[in-house]
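This part of the workshop introduces the protein records we will be handling. A learned vocabulary of local backbone shapes supplies the integers on the structure line. Getting from the letters to the tokens is the skill we practise here. As an example, a complete record with its sequence and its structure tokens follows.
=====
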Amino acid sequence: MFDPPLTCFSDESITAVREWLQAAGISDERTKLSHGSNWLSFYATVGEAESLLKTKYYAFEHAETGAPHIACQDYSIPRHLSDHIDFVTPTLHFDVKPAAPKGDRLSKRQVPANAPNAKSIGNPGTAPGAGSIPKFGRWINPWNIISQLENCDTQITPDCLRALYEFLPNNHANPANSYGIVEYTPQAYLPSDLDLFFANFSKAQVGDRPIFDSIDGGVLQTTNQSFDFNGESDLDLEYAMTLVYPQKVTLYQVGDIEGDASFNNFLDAIDASYCTYEGGDDPTEDGVYPDPAADGYKGAEACGAFAATKVISTSYGSNEHDFTPFYEMRQCNEYMKLGLMGITILYSSGDYGVAGNGGQCIAANGTYNNGTTGKFNPSFPGTCPYVTSVGATQVKPGTNIVKALASGTQPEQACETVIYSGGGFSNVFPMPSYQSSAVKEFFANHPPPYGADRYNNSMMTRGFPDVSANGANYVEAVDGNFSLVYGTSASSPTFGSVITLINQARMDIGKQSVGFLNPTLYAHPGVLNDITTGGNQGCGTPGFTATTGWDPVSTI
């Protein structure tokens, strides 16, 4: 965002500057006048700004903090504007106080995600540093963002995803269609981050915002700003909104600032009957409203207050080992009900391979250990048979996806960069019939080299994930900068975007939404790409290995 402040507040000055920007291709939709009419801000790519100001921008790094700062050595504006513009920023100015490192700006809610015996309770691990949120890679300079598909092995952008999964930019919205993204307070998106992302990848969307559904005091908190607070929600919305635009996206913001809301609290909000089903929620695991905490939400619990969208993607997850089978089966039955109503439920499969959140594994005494040994720790709700569990892939290093796709070569593998795709077998849910043939084939042709001390090897329980999508090297705008991020947190909203576009195509010809996907996916595996390389290590083992056909690592 560039800000040319106006020397005076006259309409003449404002008009003159806007006409200059319009002549350069920067429309009024990309400009914003401050309330005092003394600043005119506009969004532009680096290339547009360099052309407009006849300059070259560079990234400077603070010697002590490493904070990036964008500046140029000189710039030029037309002579006839010299009486209307005082100065333009960012340009020559270095008098900006460097911020504290982003990782240091955390709230009192930070808890070590990998603490031995730590329990994620009913809430989906929303605390800063929690194991289910995406993983930070590194900050990147905006002008180093790739523009060629040949470089998608180093960075993933919306166009990379469209090329990989062969779908075009959307050009319309069907009013019967809908797509929902679930977030849990204190995680929250920053509007300025959305606009920064849109300005680079979907200019028509600058200023676009999700439909906001506040559940049980859900709030877009901005007091705490860091990757740990904004990374998840920014990532989910930037990609979901861009990939399905102009289809609107609904944001379900769940829970008050205390951050105690659970998956059950969200389900209550979209189905009133679930509030009392089988005795209702568990107050030891789920958020209680009105919230007795001093700063908590004092309103009544949301029961059926919001409509369910046709696709619902959630990038959070807990460990199956955290709950009782009754708790999980009650919740799983609700996902079955939603599927029968034509709603597709997607959950990320996890980022620690065969281990649980934070890399935790299950010790012989049933507690969590440090993750170097022990029993595999499957995720939940991904092990519910009525959920579509989404794992992660990555473009193979050094692979030109344009050439690979043209030659019919598979450009992806199971993700093994920063994160490992969550996968394995449930300790609670039996194998669903739709999956039986695929899982039996896996065990017959590729038997894992582990015994019952490592995982449920009965060959009778639910395997996951069901599908996968790219989960590595995503370019994300977060806290005013661009970064690379990793995780099945990216895979789920990406896959959900594809399903939303499929729903749209069906609705355009009078058909219904696809609803519960898994039986169709397993009955027609040819519609997916078979990922046959990579693995999902964890608990001191190589984990499982991707191979032909279904496997508990990644399939797409």
Summary: The domain at 175-527 is CATH 3.40.50.200 (Rossmann fold).
